[in-house]
Amino acid sequence: MTLLVVVWLTAVLGAAPALAAPRLDVDSAYQELRRAQDELAAVQSEVSGKEAELAAAELNLSAARAGNGSTGEALRVARSAAVAARSRVAGFYSGVSAEFRRGREFAVLDNRAPLDYRAALPLLDFVAADQFAEVRAADESVRQAESAVTTSADALAQAEAARTAAADALAAAGARRDAALRGVQDAQNRVDEQRRVDALPPVAEGDGGNVVRFALAQLGKPYVWGAEGPGSYDCSGLVLAAFRSAGLAVPRTSAAQAEVGVPVPRDQVRPGDLVFYYQPVSHVAVAIDGSRAVHASRPGEPVRIADIDAIGPVTGIRRLLR
Q: Which of 114, 126, 139, 160 lies 20 to 30 angstroms, CA to CA, from 88?
């Protein structure tokens, strides 16, 4: 049946009997909403726990950074003390060497000097041993400080890894929470759409009524640009699928759809008429009655019912069916 013949049949046959608008499963819609709300509550609790874990990890990381700074400063001080100890030993041996050379030279001139020189050797050994002990103590302090720095660096690395893991876990939980929020919103939208469908007047029988019933059966499905169903639609894709369900073909785009059928005044809109918006035409909706229409609006919003004049500026109405 061509569109032109259908239009003529509309005039000849007149109005057809009315059928009830398609009902969504309200019990299922409410059950889905409750499940979505329960999931959101569980995920929100998980997010709160992950937030606490991240806060604890950040405190631990702060303490590890402070400890790392302290051990680094202690190592700097220990190394400076070791350098000073070695410098004193080097100065001491430099002086002893000079005295030794001078003592040997003096011994050549005075045979009493060697006895005095040998008598001084035990004292020199005592002083040297004391200075070497200082160097060894300084070296041990450096070793301990280096060990502390290594331990502190390991603790800092572990704290940073723990903080990163906690942040990643929180981000993942947050993503699950956002998905749960969207699930609650989608479920609420379906409940709201059910209420709106329940409030609709009966839909006329015939091709126009079939188109409206098909469009209403898609309520809650997501908008996807270029989609023609069955899981998602854009505005003209929904019209295409609805008319196809009645065994009729229409052009694919809203601009092309606005060129078929016959024009209808705003105050004579009937179920199944196509309402076009914007100039040039870029959006289309299927009229449910004289005041409401069903349409796939835009990304992020499902197929929904709206007041005809609230969707946007109406730039044309076309009747393709009886």
A: 114
**Position 308: which residue type?**
I
Q: Could you tell me what percent of the chain has a pLDDT over 90? A: 28
Task: Note if 278 is an active site residue.
Answer: no
How far apart, in whole angstroms, are the C-alpha atoms of residue 103 and residue 72? 47
Q: Are 60 and 52 in contact (CB under 8 A)?
A: no
Contacts of 19 (CB under 8 A, 6+ apart): 202, 203, 204, 205, 209, 213
By the 10 Å C-beta count (0-12 exposed, 13-18 middle, 19+ buried), 11 is classed as exposed
Q: Which two tokens stand for residue 253?
A: 């785009």
Catalytic residue among 40, 212, 235, 241: 235
DSSP letter for 15, please: -
Cα–Cα distances in angstroms (integers) from residue 289 to residues 22, 67, 77, 237, 296, in the given order: 14, 74, 87, 21, 17
Q: Which of 163, 190, 196, 295 is catalytic?
A: 295
At 209, the pLDDT band (50, 70, 90 cuts) reads confident
Q: How many residues does the chain have?
A: 322
Question: CA separation (Å) from 111 to 25, 121, 148, 240?
Answer: 125, 17, 57, 127
Give the DSSP letter of residue 292: E
DSSP state at residue 234: -
CA distances from 260 to 253, 263, 278, 296 (A): 11, 9, 17, 20
Q: Is 235 marked active-site?
A: yes
Catalytic residue (choose from 177, 213, 283, 319): 283
pLDDT of residue 1: 40
Please name the residues in contact with 249: beta carbons below 8 A apart, sequence gap of 6 or more.
Answer: 243
| 285 counts as catalytic | no
- Quote the CA–CA distance of 293 and 286 in Å, as a whole number: 5
Predicted TM-score (pTM) of this structure: 0.47
Q: What is the mean pLDDT of residues 200-211?
A: 74
Report the SS3 class of residue 205. coil
